[in-house]
Amino acid sequence: MSTFAMLTRLGSLLLAGFALPVLAADPSVPLLAVTPGVGGQVIGVPGASLPWLLLFPFLPALLLAFTAFARIAVVLYLLRQGLGVGNAPPNLVLTGLAVLLTIFVMSPALKKIDAEAYQPYLAGALEFNDAAAQAAEPLKVFMLRQTRAEDLALFIDGDARIDPKRVETVPLAALAPAFLTSELKTAFQIGFMVILPFLVIDLVVAAVLTALGMIMLPPQLVSLPLKLLLFVAVDGWHLLVGSLIGSF
Fold first, then answer.
1. How far apart are CA 185 and CA 94, in angstroms?
2. Using one digit for the tens of pLDDT, what is the confidence trace for 27-84?
3. How far apart are the first and last CA of the chain?
4. CA angle 154, 158, 160 (to 5 degrees)
5. Distance between alpha carbon 76 and the CA centroid of its chain, in Å?
6. How far is CA 13 from CA 20, 119, 128, 140, in A?
7. DSSP codes, 68-85
8. Model pTM?
9. Which of 37, 54, 92, 232 has a CA between 20 and 30 Å from the CA of residue 154?
């Protein structure tokens, strides 16, 4: 099975496990109800499943929030801002690169979820609730490893039942926002180190143009080729991608 197919299938199980606890707890509750009407059959949504159906547009964003995507995407967009190249690379290219790197970083956890949760669920060895819980464990291990203790403490609020060193005691409701908070902080730290050389080039170019009296010439017009030359000369994409992968 290809990585993309595995990600799609595991994503379905994870979304169901995270976002449909009511349906998982009571499989008899249907997503859609078909009842006879005057003009034929009427398709409606039961009240018990309506709140979860309303969450479906946000589920891809929530699923990506449980992975390495946030850190990678923020750093890539900060790089583009530091280079000052406008919309090059375009958003679609940066998002695609972020998704591919996320799949690579998360592949050990995805393979474990596939082997321990998804395949047993397909074979009928696990019930839906057990498969969803089993699928959440590798993700929680990954998230807890990347989460700062102070960020997790902010959300567990001194709950004595939660031991940050034991992943099974940490609820996903507290771990997910703590993980995303830590990821954003880490992303901005990496982004600062990435754009710092470009800032130095901008300052030097602006100072030189001012000293030469060329105040009407936009500094970006001169600094952009220099920043691109520097980025290409040091093989910037290779270094950045390698550093992002190594940060996990």
1. 20
2. 444 555 555 555 555 555 555 555 666 666 777 777 777 888 999 999 999 999 888 8
3. 25
4. 140
5. 13
6. 10, 11, 9, 15
7. SHHHHHHHHHHHHHHHT-
8. 0.76
9. 54
